[in-house]
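Changelog excerpt

This revision adds worked examples to the README so contributors can see how folded entries look when concatenated. The first example is reproduced verbatim below.
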Amino acid sequence: QLQLVESGGGLVQPGGSLRLSCTASGFISDAYVIGWFRQAPGKEREGVSYISSSGGSTNYPDSVKGRFTISRDNAKNMVYLQMNSLKPEDTAVYYCAASSAPYLEYGLGYWEYEYWGQGTQVTVSA
């Protein structure tokens, strides 16, 4: 059974940093593309990063580019999202997701992913 579990969320002040982790189990993680998404109350789910199965390709929307960094350690079945210079508008539930497709043309669309974690809350507030 495929399972993704997020961790590392919490409360942080504006300008601070958090590192989210996504632990994968039940499948060979290096065969899957991984994305991070977020959803704030009343808003659509937004893709904030994508990493290819090898880790050689990444993508970010302009809203987080230069502040967020996605990485993966396939030996540990882990994917990370380092978030720096956090803003109140980054407050949301953050999800990791996996796709078995060998390649995603976009990578930031929720429709491209088959498997989802339960999410972890990130709150940026003074």
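The second example, added in the same revision:
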Amino acid sequence: QVQLVESGGRLVQAGGSLSLSCAASGRSFSSYTMAWFRQAPGKERDFVAATVINWSGTSTYYEDSVKGRFTISRDNAKNTVSLQMNSLKPEDTAVYYCAATQYKQFERRKTYEYEYWGQGTQVTVSS
């Protein structure tokens, strides 16, 4: 079992920056694919970014609209995964969720591919 707790969400102005953190409990954190999703009001939960450790090292991948603005990182010693968000836009407003899966093959961008979820943290970007 893995338990995930997000923190860091708040109100921020457009163009600003924000860092989200997700603390994970449980064993073998480094073996999990860790991801961030977000859900805006009335919309589906969408993939944002993920990080995985495989034979070639640590890999990351992003949804197109956040490339160059968001950075996902993980600290395996602390069992945390972070999302640094820069140049925020009003359309980034959403509840941000941390997710984990024990599977590492292929890029995993769908909600059904993740077994574990946090409770979410609200990010609001004002214009």
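Reviewer comment on example two: DSSP finds no helices and eleven strands in the chain. The longest strand covers residues 45-54.
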